Amino acid sequence: MALIVGCANETPAPSTAATAPKPQLARNALPKFVDATAAAGIHFAHANGGSGRFYYVETYGSGAAFVDYDSDGDEDLYLVNGAVLPGFLERRVPQNVLYRNKGNGKFEETTEDAGVGDEGYGMGVCAGDYDNNGHVDLYVTNFGANVLYRNGGDGSFVDATEIAGIGDERLSMSAAFADIDNDGDLDLYVSNNTDFTLENHKECRHGSIRVYCGPGQYGGASGIMYRNEGDGTFADVTEAMGVYNDRCRQLGVVFGDYDEDGDADLFVANDMTPNFLFRNEGGTRFSNIGLNSGVAFSPDGKPEAGMGTDFGDYDRDGLLDIVVCNFQWEHCRLLKNERGDVFKDQIHESKLDEPTFSTLTFGTDFLDYDNDGYLDLFLANGHVEPNIEIIDRAGPSYAQRDQLFHNNGDGTFSDVSSDSPGLATAWVGRGSATADYDNDGDLDLFVSNNNQRGLLLRNDGGNRQHWLTVRTVGTHSNRNGIGARIRVVAGDLHQIKEVRSGSSYLSQNALRVHFGLGTHTRVDRIEIRWPSGVEQVLEDVAADQFLTVQEPEKL
What we know:
The protein is mostly beta strands. The protein contains four helices and 38 strands. The two termini are 26 Å apart.
């Protein structure tokens, strides 16, 4: 692992698209994902608290976070669980679980010692060092009061929710930290879904069959934007920042600087209501340009069931694109950034239309699983209705196989799911997260399944090509460097990625950023634009290493 403190005396060159054709690997040479859950010592099973009363909240499952909470260079794993609902008969009380990565491919549970076993009805999680003390903190969303766990740096956390003032008690879903005003500390956005409570629970039927009520049976709820005051507290600035909307039903959220102006924009996936694209207007306010930008509706003008989402430059043109996935019989949307606040859906052109039409997708992740320098796509699938095979005999099932799509480098993707034995079994998939948990140079996955055991998918063979992983340490910027844009140039291979908190569905990827380098053994140039505005350049960097880069002290 290398530590570099760079100089800020060079200006990064403008983003340019790589034009060289992508070398194609034979199908049998592609990496494979295998189920490593039991071998790694993970025995987590999600419980949705269901008792046959069909409470609306039971359908949503939970998320997962890869986070190096003890700063030892290994990605640990925090798993969110449900809770007891009225009528739940099992004796065990579900709780969230923290697994410490032992560095040998195995994990050990440290929930009790760490003090993070929240027993609320858990939904999602995100990570970020909100107090800039050098130790990454956790924010857990619940059906009920949300929880902020402050990392003390000694392997334990304390509940700082009340002091921070961010314990909203509605049905919260995804969350993400970002420095929305670039003042050096992390702010927070929390998505809320509906006004559902146990008291306004409704019964819904399909003919004579009892089913779960959909989100349209309940009123909407606004998400919340919190500004970090720098003293351990947060202020609710939802209305002041222009992001209040209580008519929507929010699920996935992701921050990313899609317009390259140096501040964090926000995409919100909404269920049955138009998606939001909040453009950051210099840290003082956001403008919702979802409708005019082409991301709010399907191409035929209909709102869809936005679930999981991610930002990523899948076509390597230097601009962040958006993927958002939806309900069964609705395509995912691959929204290509055309500049000028315009996105164009490429789901048909990418050949992702047919394979994403008959699935119901929650977890949604861009990742370069084969280290060729192009972002591939992973989807965690599973229906919300256990009786769907009786209700709709056209082919859908409750448990569904997860999917992996290989980026062909020409704007199209190929379904390579069948190559991975770890993807052969159908699950009721929900949250998904990525990290190189075994530090072997390729990205692995964790999938949280609704009312089922979780799934650790180890990548076997992705490290046959070269790679580089970058960890950012802020000085003027927030300590994790969340929001930093990293451009890596290796020969004709040009890539941009950002350090990010929260994405996919209810989940958190590792904060360190992974780049596939193909056949390149060295990186010609790394350009980092920090949230503070500092621009940093590193040159002639060896591949196949975990690189830590500290923001220069001088502005």
